[in-house]
Structure prediction request, 398 residues.
Amino acid sequence: MWTDARPAVEMPRLFERGGDLISFAGGLPDLDVLPLDALSGQFSRLVRIGGRLALQYSTPQVAKTLVPAITDLMAREGAQAAAENLVPTAGSQMGLMAVALGIGTPGETVLCQTPAYPGAAAAFRTAGLNLCVVPEDAHGMDPDGLRETVRRLRAEGRTARLLYCNPTFQNPSGATLSVERREQLLAICQELDLLLIEDNPYGLLSFDGECTTAFHGIAPERVVYLGTFSKVFAPGLRCGWISAPDHLAEELRRITEVMTLSPSALAQAVIAAFHTRSGWTELIDGYRQSYRERCALMADALEKELGTSGPWSWERPNGGFYIWLRHRDGVDTNRFVAAAAESGVSYVPGSHFGVGGEHADGLRLCFSHVPKQRIAEGVSRLAAALSAPINHEEGGTR
Prediction:
């Protein structure tokens, strides 16, 4: 199902660091929370005792020892996963590509919310799929708008059967769909025979410890769930999973086997061993506390530096990694990138999150990895850049 299409959405340069740069760009987790001494011992034991298996090729299955770690995470959001329907991935980005190739048909349309995660847009477009934005209201994606959009597309002769959603602490907006709104959207999916792709990296990272029921927990037969250990454990292990309906699991497994031949047995073993010894609660609580503190520092600094009645608007999120700023007068935030770089701070312009040119007036700030003592300084640098005279002859960013 591979095509010669290339992603129309440019992937932003998220992880560049160095010098005196304060980066608000990349969504890196705070790995200071990880108990590295304990992990070092577990790595050592795994290699010493079971290295011949952990360092070998494996089958395209989620290891039996890892299944409890996944089901524990999903249960915290009201979802249940059957072991036979779990497909291993190297993180949810690979899951997106596998779903696009394994379920999508080149030329069909994927419905989505906007602003949208650029990696999802790139995956769908690379697989030859088109994107269509669903209207929103004050509570997020609008069920009536979803119905009308699907009917319009189908009346035009276009195939529309996939709905992509990043519903909890969304990247980049930080917004979360209520359970009531999720139920309404799933009712439309049932009515119109839509399959919902639930991309959920941040669902467990609420600042108050409360979790919102996942789409998968409401109607698992209608949902392909993409999970990852990157945000609740560590991204360097590149380990995640798909929880798919019965009739799609084997096709997705076949696609992932073609993509990687086998998942990392070592990564799965490390995560399984950690969960067996420590569970998830203490680690996730540590991440929540770290991000709660960093978010408060950034939001307070934004209020101090930019005010609340000026050209910039934003809302404090209740979890996740990001604060989403919008310029009230619609100014393209690519225009401030050069000034920000000169000031020693970086961000992701909103144009990266648009599907059809929208959201250029936004910018995403990530607070999850910036040292606490540098957040206020970084916001001060950003505020200076956002107040700098605009060179209207300059183009956008890379």
Remarks:
- The longest helix spans residues 281-306.
- Confidence is low (pLDDT under 50) at residues 1-9, 393-398.
- The two ends are 30 Å apart (CA to CA).
- The domain at 22-34+282-386 is CATH 3.90.1150.10 (Aspartate Aminotransferase, domain 1).
